[in-house]
Write a structure and sequence with these properties.
This protein is α/β, with parallel strands linked by helices. It has a single domain, classed as Luciferase-like domain (TIM Barrel, Alpha-Beta Barrel). The chain is built from 10 helices and 13 strands. The strands form 3 sheets. It has an 8-stranded parallel β-barrel with strand order 1-2-3-5-8-9-10-13, surrounded by 7 helices. The longest helix is centred in the middle third of the chain and has 20 residues, at 119-138. It is globular.
Length: 303
């Protein structure tokens, strides 16, 4: 089982680099970045563009996988995105994962004049984009005549360093998103606890059967908040809180058992956001300590 780390997208680059280098040095397997331009609440908070940030990380963090969690499809024409991915994969010596989703953050679209459309139109665009991306990655020239995208004898050079760029679809929509995943994805990601994952994966398997695809070809990954502590009073307070997002809560031994349940369910990678891990202040950061405690004591028990 792999373990990925998700730095807060509202961090400056020095903080992101510190976290990513610490993650790499202590044994994490990947660094994942959200693809947003501004917060989803009405605050003026700096948010760095994900692909430019990954280019810097490709230089500063030379081992782990680098991916978007996930790129908003509406923000870039898929042919432009294909060129970005191919270039970055060469710069990173073949470590890029293209995480892609339909796009959901309405205020970004409104602020920048990007067509938001409907949930259905955004999913239609996502499906066409998957076809365009794969066509460009695997052909010398590619033609495509879709409702949203049209390509004429389109090349892509250089090709990615990897013979096959992993395409990871993010989202848990059971009718369309999981169907698109079954048709085109190499990996799939969703926020969820074990119960949610089992439910969604069963539906994904059904979609795979419907399109004639082996479900084992698609790696499954999950995201959940982490609350790791030896302080029982703190854990009791967290457990009693009105948590509106999937969360992993417990001592080292409790979290080891929870991770084992994820793995038994078929999860190949758990991605941990840094949002609940404390502060990053100098070398004595609580966040760095919890990161290291998790990867050495929890993940180390399952690797």
């Amino acid at each position: 089982m792999r373990f990925g780390f998700w730095p807060n997208p509202r961090s400056d680059y020095e903080a992101t680099k510190t976290l990513a280098q610490h993650a790499e040095a202590t044994g994490w397997d990947g660094i994942w970045l959200a693809d947003h331009f501004l917060p989803d609440e009405d605050e003026l908070i700096p948010v760095h563009e994900s692909w430019i940030t990954m280019a810097a990380l490709a230089r500063d963090v030379p081992r782990v996988r680098l991916g978007t969690l996930v790129a908003g499809n509406t923000y870039r024409h898929p042919a432009v995105l294909a060129n970005m991915v191919a270039t970055l994969d060469n710069l990173a010596d073949g470590r890029v994962v293209l995480g892609l989703g339909a796009g959901w953050q309405q205020n970004e679209h409104e602020a920048y004049g990007i067509e938001y459309g409907t949930a259905g139109s955004r999913l239609d665009m996502l499906e066409e984009s998957c076809q365009v991306l794969k066509g460009l990655f695997h052909n010398d020239h590619f033609d495509f005549d879709g409702k949203y995208y049209q390509l004429r004898n389109a090349p892509l050079e250089p090709k990615p360093k990897q013979a096959k760029i992993p395409l990871m679809i993010g989202g848990g929509g059971e009718k369309r998103t999981l169907k698109i995943t079954a048709q085109y994805a190499d990996e799939w990601n969703v926020w969820g606890d074990v119960a949610i994952l089992k439910h969604k994966m069963a539906i994904l398997d059904q979609h795979c059967e419907a399109v004639g695809r082996d479900p084992n070809e698609i790696e499954r990954s999950a995201v959940a908040l982490l609350f790791l502590s030896d302080n029982e009073n703190y854990l009791k307070r967290i457990r009693s809180a009105d948590m509106n997002m999937p969360a992993i809560i417990g001592t080292v031994n409790e979290v080891i058992d929870i991770i084992a349940n994820f793995e038994e369910a078929g999860v190949k990678e758990l991605i941990v956001p840094d949002f609940t891990l404390g502060t990053l202040i100098g070398a004595d950061s609580v966040k760095l300590e919890i990161m290291e405690k998790f990867i050495t004591e929890v993940a180390g028990a399952s690797k």
